[in-house]
Recover the amino acids of this structure.
């Protein structure tokens, strides 16, 4: 039987109504129904604050659930001064510590009382069962789920690392002499050890994280606790960096068209060659200084390479070599042979799909679909292109990528797209989701991100200058920036004050 001329089968029937959305979008209808309070527990320098921060970020960005992190140390500093010597952490000062805890608890309670599903996290050592029971009793009237997360660390190397790279950079130690700070943290740990009581069934639901290797989960039921369990099992506090770069200039970029699956222009290939140089000399190269001679020692190190499945990202990665480097041992003892930059093309990293607008310029979209264009201006985050995607949809498919980035220990170079990198960047930099669609992710630039316990640091490397690029066709037309969102865009720009380095191919700098 012949089909009518306008026959156009689609995978599902699009409901009627103004730009009706056929799929449930992340954040549109939250699956969680119960409020959750997380009580952190653990000796200083076991990674609590790092975990608490990451959970709060994940929950608000991916699950669209409001979250609040209350750090008892912040209340202590505001009540009793910025620097508290380790003596403060002895039994003698326990009253003052309880006062700081009560202040944080008061705010936690006020937050949890509000309507709607929410997650409150109380970040403190909470070392004794008495303290944990007191907290539990104080919040009992709220009828929320309570989950204790205990961090246990008996690996001296990890403790040393946590003290030197995390703890000593926390607000209480920022302006203190490094050795003094180190000794103080050690002393604090000893003081707490005297009174420490590990978590067990009497604490109710809990997750015990031992050296970020062994996880004991007890009675953690429900949507949010399960999400938290899965998330924390992917975390670690080891130092690592990852790199975001867009593909080199594509034919579509040059024409100002969005989407498509075009290849690279000459300028795009030039960028691809520089990127290979950057990958080999920076991302995949461990640079250490010999303490005695002061000379630089450069050793190739394991590194990963991810692209999307689209032609422009694969072509951008084409000059990066996949070299076998000597076998090394994982921390679980397994010996592996590593192929540096073995490429992995991931569909989840494909650019936001513009549906019927794919292949058009912004100007053409405005002329052909003026109503759609105006709707996108209104709300760029939730707007979904007809038969295409919204930033919210893309957020949903990026969740597994985020979990992979969180758990990976080697540097990862991600060759992706503007829309995708905006979301990855916003998540790690702690920007609200509304600001994500406006983050500036220029072509020809590699963004180096280093997640830390208190946020994430950023460096940008410019691999091709604007002059070398001539016209890059990437300047977003003013009309694509809705007036009411210009403020959000400006604030996204201001929050990101990147440190930009020019990358000189002939003479790569060592940073
Ligand atoms: O123009 C390049 C591009 O990657 C397009 O393929 C994509 O549609 C667009 O950027 C995403 O940016 P925006 O959401 O600002 O339109």
């Amino acid at each position: 039987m012949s089909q009518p001329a306008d026959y156009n089968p689609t995978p599902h029937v699009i409901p009627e109504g103004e730009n009706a959305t056929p799929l449930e979008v992340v954040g549109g209808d939250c699956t969680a129904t119960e409020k959750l309070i997380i009580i952190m527990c653990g000796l200083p320098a076991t990674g609590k604050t790092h975990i608490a921060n990451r959970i709060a970020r994940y929950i608000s960005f991916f699950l669209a659930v409001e979250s609040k992190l209350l750090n008892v140390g912040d209340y202590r500093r505001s009540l009793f001064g910025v620097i508290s010597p380790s003596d403060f952490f002895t039994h003698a000062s326990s009253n003052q510590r309880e006062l700081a805890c009560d202040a944080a608890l008061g705010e936690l309670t006020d937050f949890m009382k509000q309507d709607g599903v929410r997650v409150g996290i109380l970040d403190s050592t909470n070392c004794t069962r008495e303290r944990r029971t007191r907290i539990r009793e104080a919040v009992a009237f709220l009828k929320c789920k309570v989950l204790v997360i205990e961090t246990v660390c008996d690996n001296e190397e990890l403790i040393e690392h946590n003290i030197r790279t995390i703890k000593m950079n926390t607000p209480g130690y920022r302006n203190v002499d490094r050795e003094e700070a180190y000794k103080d943290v050690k002393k604090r740990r000893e003081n707490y050890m005297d009174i420490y009581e590990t978590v067990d069934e009497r604490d109710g639901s809990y997750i015990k994280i031992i050296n970020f290797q062994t996880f004991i989960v007890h009675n953690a039921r429900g949507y949010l606790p399960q999400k938290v369990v899965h998330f924390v099992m992917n975390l670690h506090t080891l130092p690592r960096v990852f790199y975001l770069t867009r593909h080199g200039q594509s034919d579509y970029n040059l024409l100002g068209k969005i989407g498509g699956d075009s290849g690279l222009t000459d300028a795009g290939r030039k960028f691809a060659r520089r990127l290979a140089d950057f990958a080999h000399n920076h991302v995949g190269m461990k640079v250490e200084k010999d303490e005695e001679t002061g000379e630089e020692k450069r050793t190739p190190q394991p590194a990963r390479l991810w692209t999307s499945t689209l032609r422009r990202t694969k072509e951008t990665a084409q000059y990066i070599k996949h070299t076998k480097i000597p076998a090394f041992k994982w921390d679980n003892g397994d010996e592996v042979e590593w192929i540096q930059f073995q490429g992995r093309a991931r569909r989840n990293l494909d650019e936001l799909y513009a549906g019927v607008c794919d292949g058009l310029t912004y100007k053409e979209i405005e002329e052909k679909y003026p109503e759609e264009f105006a709707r996108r201006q209104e709300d760029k985050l939730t707007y979904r292109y007809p038969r295409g995607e919204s930033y919210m949809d893309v957020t949903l498919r990026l969740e597994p990528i985020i979990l992979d980035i969180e758990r990976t220990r080697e540097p990862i170079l991600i060759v992706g797209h503007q829309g995708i990198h905006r979301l990855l960047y916003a998540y790690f930099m702690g920007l609200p989701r509304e600001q994500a669609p406006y983050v500036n992710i220029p072509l020809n630039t590699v963004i180096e991100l280093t997640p830390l316990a208190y946020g994430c640091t950023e460096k940008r490397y410019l691999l091709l200058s604007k002059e070398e690029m001539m016209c890059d066709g990437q300047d977003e037309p003013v009309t694509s920036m809705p007036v009411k969102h210009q403020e959000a865009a400006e604030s996204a720009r201001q929050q990101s004050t990147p440190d930009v380095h020019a990358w000189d191919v002939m003479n790569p700098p060592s940073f």
In short: Residues 22-29, 476-480 have pLDDT under 50 and may be disordered. Residues 258-259, 351-352, 354, 417-419, 437, 476 surround 6-O-phosphono-beta-D-fructofuranose (CB under 6 Å).
